[in-house]
TrEMBL record:
<protein>
    <submittedName>
        <fullName>ADAMTS like 1</fullName>
    </submittedName>
</protein>
<dbReference type="GO" id="GO:0031012">
    <property type="term" value="C:extracellular matrix"/>
</dbReference>
<dbReference type="InterPro" id="IPR000884">
    <property type="entry name" value="TSP1_rpt"/>
</dbReference>
<keyword id="KW-0732">Signal</keyword>
<keyword id="KW-0964">Secreted</keyword>
<dbReference type="InterPro" id="IPR013273">
    <property type="entry name" value="ADAMTS/ADAMTS-like"/>
</dbReference>
<keyword id="KW-1015">Disulfide bond</keyword>
<feature type="disulfide bond">
    <location>
        <begin position="60"/>
        <end position="66"/>
    </location>
</feature>
<dbReference type="InterPro" id="IPR036383">
    <property type="entry name" value="TSP1_rpt_sf"/>
</dbReference>
<feature type="disulfide bond">
    <location>
        <begin position="49"/>
        <end position="81"/>
    </location>
</feature>
<dbReference type="GO" id="GO:0030198">
    <property type="term" value="P:extracellular matrix organization"/>
</dbReference>
<feature type="signal peptide">
    <location>
        <begin position="1"/>
        <end position="28"/>
    </location>
</feature>
<dbReference type="InterPro" id="IPR050439">
    <property type="entry name" value="ADAMTS_ADAMTS-like"/>
</dbReference>
<dbReference type="Pfam" id="PF00090">
    <property type="entry name" value="TSP_1"/>
</dbReference>
<feature type="disulfide bond">
    <location>
        <begin position="45"/>
        <end position="76"/>
    </location>
</feature>
<dbReference type="GO" id="GO:0005576">
    <property type="term" value="C:extracellular region"/>
</dbReference>
Amino acid sequence: MECCRRATPGTLLLFLAFLLLSSRTARSEEDQDGLWDAWGPWSECSRTCGGGASYSLRRCLSSKSCEGRNIRYRTCSNVDCPPEAGDFRAQQCSAHNDVKHHGQFYEWLPVSNDPDNPCSLKCQAKGTALVVELAPKVLDGTRCYTESLDMCISGLCQVSADLFSFDLPRRFCLCLSGLHSLTL
């Protein structure tokens, strides 16, 4: 109930107004240009746990170009992975352990938090200083940085808030009549 002590009496009203306005804004922006087909179904999640990405596509119906994006993303599988699953970036590096690099096999370990290109798959050969980019981009849903919720989508680091139609903090506590709380 700690969050209830921080909430103001108008929190429920503000939250509902936010939801109403954000959904109206999203709909009007989407329908603004009649040159687009409807959004397609959501794809399967890129991961089964640990947070992944799903996408939906739409088609431009004009012979000219359409304004706006033809793809949208959302997060999915936002449940913790079991400890034995290991790090997602490490799994991608180790997938190259049975592939020769310059005629030699290596055990590859992940290189994380690259400020220049956080969404490339850079790995270090265990016990050496050899660091190699084994793939230009990591799999969708890989975290850009170890202490961040931002994830790589199509080789680009996407701020986690950009993956939602509207964004709520990871845990949003709302008090109803000061007696009950609802965590979203």
